Amino acid sequence: MKKTKMILASLAVAVAAITGTAHAAYPERPVEFVVPWPPGDIEDTLTRMISKALQDETGVPASTVNIKGGAGLIGATHVFNQPADGYTVGAFTANIISAHIIKGNAKYNREEFEPLAVMIGYGMMLTAHADAPFNNLSELAEYAKSNDVSLGVFGLNGPPALQTMKMAETLGFKFSSVTAYDETTCQMILNKEIDVTLGGGILRPCLASGEAKGLAAYTTARIPIYPDVATLEEQVPGISTPPWVGLFVRKDTPQEARDVISRVAKSVVESPEAQELAAKSGAVVQWMPAEKAAEFASTFYDRFEALLAK
């Protein structure tokens, strides 16, 4: 009897190996992509495109859910609380795996999440009026050493403003004044109430009209619709902490799940539809693969920690 059971067990293993039923291919149940912000922005739109593509390719339900609150912390904590099996994926902005950890707000630590990719760089840019006597950061620095140059930002203690202060320090000058606003607009530039303005997509109209010009892109790469504007990293290496979004999973997530999600997401990010989305929003949408993304995220963390220590 014992020998018969052993034979039957061996036969079952052999049949499973032949038919492929020993280990079901990923995914075999619904996959959830978590965006820790309200719907409608570029990270939400792109993630929804990815979840739809995963469902279309595999035939398994995949959805994007918005779990907002706590500056992204509630959604990130939800992902952290799920099993490390690839069925819950986070579309995380940079602060989720840096600021919250550095400030001690997060339940998770620096090692708990691993990137599948960095896929979005928000279109932040340092701008000036079109007739300003400087066209890049080195020219701005030279001019500011003997002339007053005022700066407008939308938050004195956020990474963009802190980077700009560090940039000025590195290049050997100080802004004559720094003013924080609820938002930085084209009107500030056109009225010349501020000499240099740091802002995002809301500045696109005056950049498109030629009434304003970009001095530096605070992005992961040059913004496709402003190819002649060099990044902060290109002009002043070592201080850039650009705002970005990546796909993250728990650290023990199986490689098979990582591979499937990454393959589908990469095809979406590189699609004409995603690049059209980038052009409309003034963002950088490109695929930075896992190994490079991990190095990038680690460098970002260290730089951001240094900025906050100032």
Structure description:
This protein is α/β, with parallel strands linked by helices. The protein has two domains: 27-121 and 243-308, D-Maltodextrin-Binding Protein, domain 2 (3-Layer(aba) Sandwich), CATH 3.40.190; 125-235, D-Maltodextrin-Binding Protein, domain 2 (3-Layer(aba) Sandwich). It is built from twelve helices and eleven strands. The protein has helices spanning 2-19, 42-58, 73-80, 99-102, 137-144, 159-171, 186-190, 204-209, 232-235, 255-269, 272-281, 290-308; strands spanning 31-35, 62-66, 88-93, 113-121, 125-129, 150-153, 177-180, 196-199, 212-217, 244-250, 284-289. Strands 2-1-3-10-4-11 form a six-stranded mixed beta sheet, with helices on both faces. It has a five-stranded mixed beta sheet with strand order 7-6-8-5-9. Helix 6 (159-171) links the parallel strand 6 (150-153) and strand 7. It starts with a helix and ends with a helix.
Keywords:
single chain, six-stranded mixed sheet, D-Maltodextrin-Binding Protein, domain 2, about 300 residues, disordered N terminus, about 40% helix, five-stranded mixed sheet, alpha/beta
